[in-house]
Amino acid sequence: MKITVVGAGAVGATCADNIARKELAEELVLLDIKEGFAEGKAIDMMQTATLLGFDTKIKGVTNDYSQTAGSTVAVIT
To answer: Which of 25, 33, 38, 40 could form an S-S bond across to 3 if both were Cys, CB 3.0 to 4.6 Å?
Structure first.
């Protein structure tokens, strides 16, 4: 399953982090309008994957809604 979280602020990032930790999706897209913000959050989350024991693929994107194609769920924060 693929899940998109729109908004990488405190609420969106926390939501995305919990989705990844609980492995609710195989792929997670974190989308934000602020340049580089979602990408940075995604990198931070991926760096904790080994420590926390999850393998969800997390991708951060800026204003590229094409990356959300195929998402089963979209969370808008």
So the answer is: 25
